[in-house]
Amino acid sequence: MTLSTAFYGAGERAQPYLRALARRADVRVTGVCDPDRRAAEAVAAGWGAGVFPSPEALLREARPDALWVCVPPHALGEVLLRAAEQGVPFFVEPPGAADYAGARLVGKRVSQADLVTAVGFATRYTDVLAEAREYLGAKALPLALGWWLRPTTEEEGPTTAAGLLWAEAAGLVDALRYFCGDVARVHALSAGAAGGGLVVQLELASGGVGVLTCTAYPRPDPRAELELLGEGWTLGFAAPTEGAAPALATLRLVERDRTTILRRLNDPAADHAAAFLEAVAARKPAAVPTGYAESLRTLAVCHAAAVSAREGRPVTVAEVEHLPTPPQG
C-alpha cells in the first residue's frame, strides 16, 4: 500500500523527513504548503505534488493519509485541530503547539479521534541513546544535569530562556524523561532582568533530582548536553555545535576503569518517520512512543517551569496537568 502524505512547511525543518521519504517506495508526497510559496514550489516540483495556499486547503483538497507539520510554533494556527477533526494522522515538529493551553486542546481532540500522531522528539530514536538505555538496565538514576545554551540572532529579536525552553529545549526535557521517568515538581529561577537565563530544579517521581540550565545569552556557539550520574559511572550526551537547535548525537560513558565514546550512526529522523508510518498503516496510535499524549507530559514540565519562574514558587506538574480543559474553538 502506498501512503499519500502532505507537508505544511517546506523549509529546513522539513528536509530530514523529505529525504527519508524519498528513500521509500511506499510513500508519495501529494501536497505542499508553506508561508514561503517558492519553498513550497521547490519541494513540490521534486515530487510532482500540488502547491496549496493554506493548510486548510491542503487538508481539504490533497486529502492525505498522513500530514507532516514542519513550521515554527507561532505559525501552527489551527492546522493540528483541523487534522484531528478530519481524522488525518499527523507528525509535528516539537513542541507541537504555541503554548500549553493550545497543546492540551490538541491533545483532547487527538484522544477523541483515537488518532495516530507523533511529535518529532527524534532524540528518542538516536542509536546512542538506545545504547545508553541498554547499559543502564535497572540502575538507579539519582542525578541528571542538562544544559541548553543557545545564542539568539538579531532577526529573532529578544528571547527569554523560558520561551527557549518551550520552543527548543523541550527536546532536552523529553530526553531526560526518557531516561529518568516523570517529573513530580519543578522549581525554576530566572536570571537577568530580561529573563535571559533560567535554572530549573526537577524533583523526579523516582526520587532522583535533575537540574537544567537554559539561556538565550549571546555566545560563540550553542551548547546542548545531558549528563546522567550514578555510583561509579557517568553518561554524557552532547550535540554538535552547528545548527540553531542541535540534537544529541554523541555518548561519553565514564566508568572507574575506562571511558567509552560513541557517535551516532543512524538517521533518527528516518527511523522516527518509519515508526510513524508503520503506525499509520496499522492504525495503532499506541505504537508511536512519541505520540501527542506523551509529548504533553514533556510540555507540562516546560510549562510548570515557566509558571514557577513567573510566580516565584515550586509548581507540581500535576497542578498544571489538572487545570480545567480549555474550551473547544
Characterize this entry briefly:
The chain has 329 residues and is an alpha/beta fold. The chain contains eleven helices and 15 strands. The radius of gyration is 20 Å and the shape is globular.
Q: What is the element layout, followed by pairings?
A:
Elements: E1 3-8, H1 15-22, E2 27-33, H2 37-47, E3 50-51, H3 55-62, E4 66-69, H4 79-85, E5 90-92, H5 100-113, E6 117-119, H6 127-136, E7 143-149, H7 161-167, H8 170-180, E8 183-191, E9 197-204, E10 209-215, E11 223-230, E12 233-238, E13 250-255, E14 259-263, H9 268-282, H10 292-311, E15 315-316, H11 317-321
Parallel strand pairs: 1-2, 1-4, 2-3, 4-5, 5-6, 7-10
Antiparallel strand pairs: 7-11, 8-9, 8-15, 9-10, 11-12, 12-13, 13-14
Helix pairs in contact: 4-5, 5-10, 7-10, 8-10
